[in-house]
Amino acid sequence: MKKIVVLLLLTFLITGCSTSKRRIVKKIDTQIKSEQYKNQFTGFLIIDPVSMDTIYSINSTRYFIPASNTKIFTLFTSLNLLPDSIPTLKYVIKNDTLIAQGTGDPAVLHPYFNDSTALHFMDKYENIAFYPNNFREEKFGPGWSWDDYHWYYSPERSSLPLYGNVLTIKNTDSLEVHPKYFKDSIVSIDYPVNRELQKNVFYFNPSKKDTVEIPFRVDTNTTKILLEKVLKKKIQITRTFPEVGQQILYGMPSDSVYKRMMQVSDNFLAEQLLILGSSTLSDTLNSYKAREYVLDNQLSDLRQPPRWVDGSGLSRYNLFSPESFVHVLYKMYREIPRERLFLFFPTGGESGTLEDWYPGDQNPYIYAKTGSLGNNHNLSGYLITKSGKTLIFSFMNNHFMESSSEIKKRMQGIFENIRDTY
Q: Which of 172, 225, 230, 378 is deepest in the core (most CB within 10 A)?
């Protein structure tokens, strides 16, 4: 009798799931094959990670421009290469001199983190030598828009970033500038760009009352001067770094950086995290090393290997499939405790880039990463159904000509239907 009851229950569950899946497929098909989607390229894959059932799939193996969905791969890489605390400095103590090189740590005096672990450590030594030649990377990623150089979202990459590689200007009762070193380089004028292309001359409209962040040009001399200003001592530049006696200084918790990167879609943090990852593989800082290592090892089973050129997704050269995102999201879901994993992602209706979209009825139901460039909007992550199931999805929209708000409205309707039906 018990066997009959179990069989009947299993039959009921399978039939129920099949029925709900058919309703979902029919409704999504009606929407995605409508005139509204006719002139754009759409890919969507959503799976049940427990039953491994594909709930819906369209163009899921095709390549799309991912924009900031790329940061999902950056997160995965960081989780696999970096320790629990950020490696903030590599150093050797030789005689009475501290010889230091950067690891790519983005948090040192960053406007949000303001981490000073490395500086407190360096301050203990009277004689300091800085080695800048371990950075073998272009300042900007391939395919980045050259005229974005003066916008807050496009700081230069470097081995020892300071202040997030941005000048922060607050206009309250008086002009507040960080780092102060650049205060005399600010021209008070309303100007089409925030900074000169090739030099650190900045433009700021004095009528503005909001906080402005402007990337500054990074070179060895600028890094040296900024270090000297904060440490109040001279820094020597060295052209060699000892191979013997190398040690690593660790800074702030890595999860704090991952969360900030994902929540507000911070391009600078994403780029520097890949550089940081490369510091664990060799003495040379180059994000290509980190990307290739993870693709060759942890992600060698990807069925559509991506074209992956940066950490942030600023480049339109990046090409990923929805299936690849679901693959990586599934790996993280399987390997990382849910409570920790979901903290990295913006929460629908509550936080980060999803604060104004995908609200739940009573509880959040979407934990996902957005990815937006002109005429492209993507969302990949986790969906919680009303029946308590966790689903993994990647929904990619490329080359549309309408407002991204309209795209999001249609996506929200599809997600709500899946939430309520499956």
A: 378
DSSP secondary structure of 123-169: TT-SEEEE--TTB-S-SS-TT--GGGTTSTT-PPP-SS--GGGEEEE
Q: Which of 43, 18, 10 has its CA nearest to residue 422?
A: 18
Count the residues in the chain: 422
Tokens of 358: 């995908």
Condensed to tens digits (0 to 9), the pLDDT of residues 20-48 reads 899 999 999 999 989 999 999 999 999 99
pTM: 0.94
Domains for the chain: give ranges and CATH numbers. Answer: 17-66+320-421 (3.40.710.10), 75-287 (no CATH)
| Alpha helices per DSSP H over 157-302 | 220-231, 254-263, 267-279, 287-296
**Main-chain phi, psi angles of 6, to 5 degrees:** -65, -45
Our measurement of the distance from residue 100's CA atom to the centroid of its chain's CA atoms, rounded to an integer in Å, reads: 27
State both tokens at 236: 């020597």
**Alpha helices by DSSP H, 321-374:** 322-335, 338-344
Q: Which token pair is 193?
A: 């760009």
